[in-house]
Design brief:
It is a single chain. The protein is α/β, with parallel strands linked by helices and 549 residues long. The chain is 59% helix and 11% strand. A five-stranded parallel beta sheet has the order 2-1-3-4-5, with helices on both faces. The chain is elongated and about 110 Å long.
Amino acid sequence: MKKVLLVDDEILIRETIRDTIQWEKEGFIYCGDASDGEVALPMIEQYQPDILITDIKMPFMDGLELSSFVRKNMPDVKIVILSGHGDFEYARTALRLGVEEYCTKPISSADLVQTLRQVSDKIDDERRAKEQIEQLKQGESRHAGLTQSKLLNDLCSGFITTSEAVHLSSKLSLNLLSRYYVVVTADFRKMASADSVPDDIFDYMKQDEHKLNLKLEGDNILVFKRSKTECVWILKRESPEHIKQALETFQHVQNQTTDQLPYSISIGIGSVQDRMQGIHVSFLEAMEDMHWRRLSRQNRQAMLESRNGSFEQSVFLDRAQFVDFLKIGSPAKAESFVRTFASVLQHTDWHSSLIGYYILNDLTLEVFRSARDSYPNIANFDTTLHTMQNAIESIRSWDESCAYLIGLSEQYWQWRSGASDKYGDMLVKVKKYIHDHYDKDYFSLQDAADHVNLSPGHLSKVFSQEIGQTFIEYLTQTRIRKAMELLQTTQAKSYEIAFLVGYNDAHYFSNLFKRVTGMTTKQFRKSGQLNKDLPTSEREEHKGFVSYS
């Protein structure tokens, strides 16, 4: 219901209007009345009426002065002039002030109610219009946010080329260009061991996430939410030293997270890259790092619980020392190294305590994380980890723990020795598969990954590291090179060539061709020159891979 306030210096008129209209039945609330504008002002402030009915000629502050003040300070209040003066100048002044209606006295209750209904309908229409505009603004804002998030997510996932990323970012006024990049991921997760979780647990998480954004805000950082619990940051800096300084914020947050909190923050940091296409590699590394840090944190939390919340830090095995030995050591030195390295476990009670299990599991997770980083193309990775963890459970002596660590070392060296051969054969198959299927518009990373029995993430990371290009960039350049050949050797039209190289949208193909080659298809056909920036068979053979172009 709309609130109505009446201002008139004649008490009889005020009483008549007040008492002859059934306000609530008509859909209104009668807030009260005043004898002049000066008396009315504090009432207007107090009641915030939707409709103001006012006479013109009143002492102290007349209706026109009151209307002028209300229109300036409360523009949403609708004003109805009710006056015994029918002079045109009064009406024109009132209309210039923006009043809704100018009614002359005397006026019947029925006519006044009809006027109020019309004004009320107008208020409803304006409010609906404002709501629609606000919804549109919110929708545009959400759409803009999602568009930026989608672009950054696609860039991290390797779904778009560098040229496409730059092109799309310009439409969003988003600056992606920088000399160095690094990707950081963070997972905000409720601790499974928390007996009781406060209702505002997610508010706590949001606060930490907000602190990170505040400390890293500016043009040199891009951030998006990958899921309900995961955040991704792309840090841009002009030197590796500046990258290192920016990463200190994340490292500080990771170190400040204590096991007493009902939630944890697992932060993963990728490698520093000097090309935009390297963002994809850095992202995959950050996701892997975050995953293993979360597993390690869960393992340590379980260890804390097994020791009633306390343990000697010296009981931990030096994970970095063990991994360094695996990278440069040899099987001949394994036994002597392991027995020295694991000497701190000699007094561990393997029968009545789980602490030995958690210590070895912690080290195992670190070894597997390092192996995944170094050799992404590992078959049956999760199955092997599960087998190793089951083996830990059967250990009942220090000698058995040493034997386990030697076996863990041998597993790592097995991965190390088989990695190089697998990469070469696998990538030859993938590249041939690309050259055999590039003309299919539906062709994707998933198709190629299925062909070589790998996950899309692992294939994408290996491909980027070994080839020096993301999968989508290699596919795009393969298509563009074939299009260049067709432009040189056939009279096919541009839209026909677009279809022949896997693009159903001829307009998109034309724009992409120009961004990659620097020329339109028509200009290229006239010049007849191959773009030297595209990969040639000689360059590919130099990297040790066969070209099928």
